Amino acid sequence: MDGFQNITVNSNKSEMNGTVEWRSPSNIALIKYWGKSGDQIPMNPSISMTLKYAFTQTEIEWSPRENSNEKVFDFYLSGDKVSSGFESKVKALIGRFALKYPVLNKLFFTIKSLNTFPHSTGIASSASGMSALALALLSVVKETSDFGGNYDDFTKEASYFSRLGSGSACRSLYGPYAIWGSGTSGIGNDEYAVPFHPHNDFLRIFDSILIFSKKPKKVGSTLGHSLMNDHPYRNGRIEQVHKNMERLLPAMEQGDFDTWQQVVENEAMSLHGLMMASSTPVMLLAPETIRFLNDLEDFRTGKGLKVAYTIDAGPNVHLLYALEHREIIQDFISNWVMDSKLNMDVIDDETGMGPKQLFE
Ligand code: DP6
Question: Is any ligand 1 atom within 6 A of the Cβ of residue 85?
């Protein structure tokens, strides 16, 4: 755990009651994390754009817990008490925190979370949810004991713990872009993300998310990632990702939208190609996804538009584009949706700068 040795904690501080609240965004991967091993160590580096409006807001109210066997927390999502799959992930993350910060073993938590975006829309709620939770738990540590780290140490530590909750969540700690995973010209770490600052032209990229399906994911992330373990294209994929990182980062530093478009779209198609070619084949694209991509291709040919599509583990398309082409792209999307006669939503987002503490 490099980087954290200088964070000292002692439990003389006795703020045994209190409330903290954090807002943390989702992110969309430009180069995809797909495949992991051990303790959430990614098979390859990835880079994402941090979103601005799609975020989770998480409040933790803590109070003393008399007995370490007592219930540890209550979890409310949008006001409802839930005991879903997410709750077991919350429990696991608190457990990981408590191993390093035993002060948490003395506390009971009331956790209230809400998302600004609907569930299962192709926006990663685990990224915003787990990063907001990690930030709030680390704030509790800070309030109840002496956390000797500075702001950067705090964010890095929150990224480290977010990763344990959900890999892609560790990238949500930084805006406008974040890199997670080692191996690209000395940048990046497997245990936490680092920020990436591009050319000014990439500081405000819009993201229109075309929601073709709101059905829950057909394949959970753990199963999905495990398909890379014995994948026949595993080595080729690792080689491809490193080449894509080496092309994308300089392109984004130089304001080169052509290379950005080629790499981002290659990553989206490769992710789905890998899924389809897995030992258990997974097909997540919908007929509408393919129709939209074909129509986009026809529409943009010869226009020199600064636009790229990307797709995560589902059928929904993120259309990313520069400010100067906002109008033409948004017109294209609304016409397409109207012509398609589909009853579908489009969510508009853009580049964001990362989490924000609301209450301390
Ligand atoms: C396709 O971060 O959801 O969105 O670590 O198991 O929680 P876990 O996986 P998760 O995987 C995200 C995969 C992806 C690509 C990406 O965001 O990089």
Answer: no
